[in-house]
Amino acid sequence: MRLTRLSLTINDIERFVVCDPEKDSLAMVLRRMGLTGVKVGCGTGVCGACSVILNGKVVRSCSRKMKAVAEFSEITTIEGIGTAKNLHPLQQAWITFGGVQCGFCTPGFIVSAYQLLAENISPTREEVREWFSKHRNICRCTGYKPLVDSVMEAAKVLRGEATMKDITYDFAGEKEIYGSRRPRPTALAKVTGLADYGNDVAQQMPEGTVHLAVVLSEVYHANIISIDTSEAEKMPGVIKVMTAKDVKGSNNLPVQGHVIRQKGHGVRDFPVIAGKRIRRRGDVVALVAADTEEHARAAAKKVKQNLELLPSYMTFPEAVMPNAIQLHENVPNFYLEQPCFKGRDTAEIFETAPVVAEGSFHSQHEPHLPIEPDVCQAYWGIDGMMTIQCKCQNLSENSEALALACGIPKENIRMILNCVGGSFGYTIASNTFALVITAVQNLDMPCSLSLSYDEHNHTTGKRSATFTNGRIACDKEGKIIAAEYDVALDHGAYALVPIFNNLVSVGFHGYNIPNFKALARGGSTNHAFNTAYRGFGSPQIFTTTEALIDMAAEKAGIDPWEFRYKNAARPGDLSINSRPYHDYVYPKLLEMAKPTYDKYMAEAKAAKAEGRHVGVGMSMGGFIITIGAHDRAEVALELNADGTITHFNTWQDMGQGGDIGTLTHTVKALAPLGIKAEQVRLVMNDSKICPDTNLSAASRSHYMAGNATLDAARQLLDAMRKKDGTYRTHAEMVAGKIPTKYIGHYDQFNIGLPVDLDPNTGEGERNPTYMYGVNIAQVEVDVKTGKTRVLRFTWVGDVGVVGNILSVEGQGYGGISHSIGFALS
């Protein structure tokens, strides 16, 4: 190894660095210096999280080798732009205008925007977007609009048209926290680059921490004859190479049941380390432990896989062919089934219907693509507990899965959430955590695993694919008289999330369809395993049902908006599951959307007159907000000696706003005490000290954690309340031997919800309420290349009473961007 010493001006200070110019990237050098605001996501110069300014130019430091960094270069990182007590206008604007969600990409965006405004202090919104695109700054959370808003507001300050006060949230003037635009508490750490994500924690782990590398299958389906680790074990720095025999528990991550009508019996395999069979590309076949990550990765390349290749089934139709090999020992490839019937036999109606539209539809697997790849640490704590630091959307259920797979009692497992660089559902799975636990069990040493972006995408779950045949019938006036579909869910090699029955409960949501028949079926393939992803199940089935609505409207010669308005459910109409809708809001939402729809249509007509190919599309539908009758959540509120309140929960914050949600609920629920936001301390996402608030998914946390908070607040207020209606102090509570901490509980066990749909008819309503929306998109298509550009998008919805406007807007914009990706990629 040949090293060099360079003089660099970093954040206006001359610094001397020693590096390997051939191997070290600029990001590696800066992070070694403690400048961990330089985040590394993709590691290939694509995502922009590592952006710094090098000699007046924005560069992606993860792909800039030190040999390409001249001595005496000037470098600016996020740490040199502003501090917590002296924020730059860009940092303040990011906080105030919703630029921060998960925050992993935030330092790179702010650094990039800093150089933009240095070159152009008065950019247009389009110029801001073009700048971020040119410099490959990618955000998966915000949908970009809040980021552009933030740049535009900061530019006003730099031009002298506004002050820092103008772009800072008025905390003192806040009259009501619930329904406000109060920024999230974690935003300050994120805009200054001081929030510690998984790899930042890995870098801070004490000396003696073992580094891990995975050996992944590169084939989709095979029997494992042997895994030869002998050469890898001889590599420098290697401590141990682990295979399936080294997993201490069942070596099988529990897979949830899906529906009552399941074929087969026994347990479906999801091995921590595959020892007998490979069922997907990305199955882990060995785990290397070494003194450095570099040594671990080098050794992993020496592990040899001796395999008997088997046919791979990458789609559901392939996997269910009569001669297909069964992927799981006791469960056939096609093992899930749920029918749904309503009204008359649809076959008779279709024979005489004036208008019939039909087609075949496919929705693809979809990766979550967070900017931060998966990272996890594990170690034995001083309390004797196996402690896992990771990003996870369900600390409790993951603890249960890990207990079985790794052979540790659940009460001896402590899970702590690292700051999360986005998830969108994939961290429901615990397969990565189980690997690190296995290493700690074998080595009795702290261990850390950092996946590369490529490894991350192969090992993590994805949105499931579907294949559907469907048809719809209406009368001469355009009223729907019948619909039916046959949908097949391809859940990949393993099935983690029970989204299956959503396919026959949210389909055609919001419409009055008097006669309906559907069959949902599902099973295993050799594709990526299924996990949660935004609206799990609804994008798949809406791909079919909303297309059928448009096809029927076209055949009937009716405008798509008019067709939806004519067929929107009204009081007395029933869902496809033969139950009343919770709310009959769709006609109103459509009316609210009509002016925008008309405007988009007029613009499209004018564009067509110019020879451009511009069109307008729309859709509508609803989605669940809990996980049904068995859903439960707990939180705890504690009165402290100084009169402040501590809120304990596991509202896992993936960037959606668990922190501001918890704060908002606490202040609102304890309004009789006059508690202010600054008097609330949040202790979150540590399974040892926080009650189980259950998973962060299905937009359930606000609803479930909110109700649990109300229960805890009621108990605390009752305990504090004196006979004269005033409230006891902490000292008075202690003197009276009255507890100062209360656990709030909320569940849906006895509120009249069935456990599931009727297995034979599909009747039933599993959810207490829904969210509703109407979407309108204006797009332009280049008919020569097929490239589609979304010109405008409007969503009109009803999500109930909004707790925090910034969070809801952020989720909305992010959801729109993911939906566009789902549709066009």
Structure explained in plain terms:
- The protein has five domains: 4-80, Beta-grasp domain (Ubiquitin-like (UB roll)), CATH 3.10.20; 89-195, DNA polymerase, domain 1 (Orthogonal Bundle); 202-314 and 370-459, Aldehyde oxidase/xanthine dehydrogenase, a/b hammerhead (Aldehyde Oxidoreductase, domain 3); 583-625 and 769-825, 2-Layer Sandwich (Aldehyde Oxidoreductase, domain 4), CATH 3.30.365; 632-747, Aldehyde oxidase/xanthine dehydrogenase, molybdopterin binding domain (Aldehyde Oxidoreductase, domain 4, 2-Layer Sandwich), CATH 3.30.365.
- 28% of the residues lie in helices and 22% in strands.
- The strands form six sheets. Strands 8-10-6-17-14-15-16 form a seven-stranded mixed beta sheet, with helices on both faces. The protein has a five-stranded mixed beta sheet with strand order 2-1-5-3-4, covered by helices on one side.
- The model has no long low-confidence stretch (mean pLDDT 96).
List its traits.
21 helices; 5 domains; seven-stranded mixed sheet; Aldehyde Oxidoreductase, domain 3; 825 residues; single chain; five-stranded mixed sheet; alpha+beta; DNA polymerase, domain 1; Ubiquitin-like (UB roll)
